[in-house]
Amino acid sequence: MRTFAFIIPPTVELLDLAGPVQVFTEAKFYGFEADVQFYCFDDNPISTAGLGFGNIGHYADANLKEGDFVFVPGMDFEYVSSIAFKAQKDFFNWLKQCADRGITVCSICNGAFALGHAGLLKDTQCTTHWRRVEALQTLFPQAKVLSDILFIKSNDVYTSAGISAGIDLALAILEDLKGPLFTHRVARGLVVYHRRSGTHNQQSIYLDYRNHINPQIHQVQDYLIDNLSSENSIETLAELVNMSPRNLSRVFKEKTGSTVLEYLTLLRKEYASTMLNNPDYTIEYIASKCGYKSARQLQRILKN
Questions:
Q1: What residue ranges do the domains of the chain occupy?
Q2: Is 270 helix (H, G, I), strand (E, B) or coil?
Q3: Residue 210 and which of 32, 169, 182, 256 are 20 to 30 A apart at CA?
Q4: How many CA atoms lie within 13 Å of 154's alpha carbon, on the beta-carbon side?
Q5: What is the pLDDT of residue 193?
Q6: pTM of the model
Q7: Was domain 209-303 assigned CATH 1.10.10.10?
Q8: Which pLDDT band, with edges at 50, 70 and 90, does 83 fall under?
Q9: How many alpha carbons lie under 13 Å from residue 6 in its C-beta half-sphere?
């Protein structure tokens, strides 16, 4: 079982912590084997909102192994700039030792400063909250600090922009571990749609075409994924979201850059390609599961 250890520093930003935690908690609901743990490096941490925490173990007691993850969420920047934070040399050394042992170190928001003090940002592309990009680059001149991105993985280190971008980071990690379809299910369970980083090269029909916030179009996309073998006429889809067929066609194209039929065809091709890996499935069976009337029709679509 993989462990996801979250450090709770003093003056932690709640959403920086709770967002990624909830991603892995939701993933466990869908069967992902994960052990979510919490540690601190200073006694009795309190969040920036004034919420305190119960009895939390010390990071030195964490029993982590290669393949596990450590997350450092953001904190109040006044604390990050303080002598008290910079004096946490034992903690920074521990982060470096984790990385050396094959444990992936991640940061949300200005948690990146902890990674910088640990020496993990040298010659590494990284990011942080847009307000702190300049400060991070100034303090760690050998880092390659990027702005205007949600998250990035470089030299086996993950960093993300501020606040809600930690959710995108956690979903990206989950996609690397469990694939796009599983990640889509988790994102949908969270009522969040995965905004993939511009540096994320892997294409996925389940996650792409989602960079919009129209709830009706998201609902149509979710329905199509779950009902590939149905007829899926534009009239049926329009009725589902209380739109006229003409308006649905227009808005879908506007929000996704694809027509409904083009999107449905891409979904069917992806699903068919996955099913073809199973030698027990005939081409006729796969065609029927994808909503095609004949194997010949599916074969023609796959060739295109």
A1: 2-182, 209-303
A2: helix
A3: 32
A4: 21
A5: 67
A6: 0.76
A7: no
A8: very high
A9: 27
